[in-house]
Amino acid sequence: MDFFDYIYNYYIDKLLHYESLEFSQLDKDTLLNTLSEASSLKKFLNDNKEEGYKDTYDAFCIGLDAINRLDTVINRGLTILNGKEENLFYLFPKKVSFHFEKDTCPVKIYELNDYLNILRNISPNDINFDVIKQIASQDWVEKTTLVLNEMHRYAQWIRENNKFNNDLIFLLRDTLLLYLNFKHLENMSQTCVIPVMLNRKFFSNYGDIFYKFITPPIYDIISQNPDISYCDICRMYKQEFNKCESICLQQAKNDAFNYIDSIMEKRKYTIIESGIQGSMPLFIMSIINRVDSFLMYTTAPWLFKQYNGIIFRKNYNYLRDMETLICQNDLFDYHHLEKNKVYIKEYQNEEIKSLAYYEIYLFKQLVTNSNGV
User: Fold this and answer.
1) Please, which residues have CB within 8 angstroms of residue 263's CB and are 6 or more apart in sequence?
2) Are 186 and 192 contacting, i.e. CB atoms less than 8 angstroms apart?
3) Are 169 and 194 in contact (CB under 8 A)?
């Protein structure tokens, strides 16, 4: 089933359900959970608009009036709770963002591992504090501190939930800070960590295969098996996915396999992902048998049940705050694959580099202070 069709029907059912509820008859915890879910569904649509998927946003707003209906539901519940949505369901109550002109920005190309070694060794001498003082508000400082502490809690949870003591694959860019954290402590933990840059820009070189072939099997499976477990999703996804005979997909699978296999040891691996659908981990698990599990920060409400046990938070609203840290969203991006090596481009923008390097340095200090190394 198509991703769009599945979630469109999901929103129809959820909107009708919320609108049928008498909130005054719900206990406080049930009301909070209901409103949190509704807030997440609204946030998901707004995130789509922010990320450039305006057609999806418009389809839900025009076809279902989804944003207005969700707002009505949320406000009805907040009246009873005497609270504010941003205070109850968001990591930081204010919107803090920067707009960087990256399209015309010069770039510098690095092999991925060479670049990550540079980032691992960032010191205050690499940071332009004058630029930070000019453009960073107090709200940005407060929000960044909250997000970095939340990522540190996620890192601790990963250690506790790596139940088979597998080595770890970090999917960049969204787990950059986590990778640097675990790499810093690699010798102490005896866990081997590797970075993998496999994202939608990688797959765009092979046509529209991400949305045609990689995501749909998830929704084929859960639409027919709504109560399916995470383990069964992994097993059935591999079966369904490998039936596809697309030439473009096969080339992408071959290139991805050769790239990832060339940097792996002969051990078992768990993938660390930010969220939300698990498409990329499931793709990798389908082409490399040594990868047998994944953990995510969070997922979307329609996958909470299926991914229960492998997600850190049941609050989608926090996700974009993690993913849009400047070091993970703006500093660098995929450039090309050559001889099983990934090359990235770093944007040579002084504002981006100053803020991003500062985030990396702050997180490194947080890890050092917490672990004493």
Assistant:
1) 194, 196
2) yes
3) yes
Residue with tokens 């200090």: 365
Q: How far apart are the first and last CA of the chain?
A: 48
Of 123, 145, 150, 112, give the one whose Cα is nearest residue 335.
Answer: 112
User: What is the pTM for the complete model shown?
Assistant: 0.95
Task: Give the pLDDT score at 300.
Answer: 96
> Residues for the chain: how many in total?
373
pLDDT in tens, 106-132: 999 999 999 999 999 999 999 999 999
Q: Please identify every stretch of the chain with a pLDDT value under 50, giving residue numbers as ranges.
A: none
Residues 6+ apart with CB under 8 A from 112: 172, 195, 197, 341, 342, 343, 344
Contact 302, 7 (CB under 8 A): yes
* Token pair belonging to 320: 């974009």
Instruction: Encode 317-347 in three state secondary structure.
Output: HHHHHHHCCHHHHCCEEEEEEECCEEEEEEE
209: tokens are 């295969």
Closest-CA residue to 60 (of 113, 96, 6, 137): 6
With CA atoms as reference, report the closest residue to 271 among 260, 133, 45, 24: 260
Residues 6+ apart with CB under 8 A from 138: none
Alpha-carbon distances of 349 from 115, 342, 345, 353, 360, rounded to whole Å: 16, 22, 12, 6, 16
The answer to whether the CB of 332 falls within 8 A of the CB of 94 is no
> Could you tell me the two tokens for 219?
């929704």
- Give the residue carrying structure tokens 């968001």: 90
DSSP string, 65-108: -HHHHHHHHHHHHHHHHT--HHHHH-SSSS--------TTS-EE
Tokens standing for 316? 């989608």
Tokens of residue 97, six digits? 């963002």
